[in-house]
Amino acid sequence: NAGVTQTPKFQVLKTGQSMTLQCAQDMNHNSMYWYRQDPGMGLRLIYYSASEGTTDKGEVPNGYNVSRLNKREFSLRLESAAPSQTSVYFCASSEDGGLGYEQFFGPGTRLTVL
Amino acid sequence: AQSVSQHNHHVILSEAASLELGCNYSYGGTVNLFWYVQYPGQHLQLLLKYFSGDPLVKGIKGFEAEFIKSKFSFNLRKPSVQWSDTAEYFCAVNALGDDKIIFGKGTRLHILP
User: Fold this and answer.
1) Over residues A36-61, mean pLDDT
2) Span B26-52, pLDDT tens digits
3) Calpha distance B22→B91 (Å, rounded)
4) Which of A6, A89, A101, B1 makes the best surface tag, with the fewest CB within 10 Å?
């Protein structure tokens, strides 16, 4: 099992460009999450999907959109990138977030917006 | 709303020293508690978790944590640290029934050889 995979690993964008971060899990998990990690700020939840067909905003959703394409895949889209979105982005999945199961994390995407 | 506070942002210890990292959360109901570790350049991995039962939980690599409900605390401990424990440690809380986990801001641990 690959666990949680993310693409790309690195990306550089110019202000105003758009891009989609891809995430897939092969553990048949119901819940999936997108976080951003910034120095001194810990992990902040951007969006999550408790189950296939549902998505909800987290702590810092502005400037982002998500799509739960199917049970395996959960993508994060930046429509018009801004320098404030320079960060490391982690995708995670959980068997059932509502029951408190642990989250499994992907390797991350390091995004720089110039 | 839930929140998690980690008291130390940066801790420096020598090898073989004992470790205790503080974590407090704010939520009045039933919680599930976690400690995650992030080694340099890697993603987060679960170190240990508390769901119910014995408040002293043991995790991987000799780590343990104690849940003290009256103090809303879940401190992480290790009797003797190693250089390989150099990493960032995150405490996290999940309110039972909530789909989300709330993470603390993390503690960077640096072990001197």
Assistant:
1) 93
2) 988 889 999 999 999 888 999 999 988
3) 9
4) B1
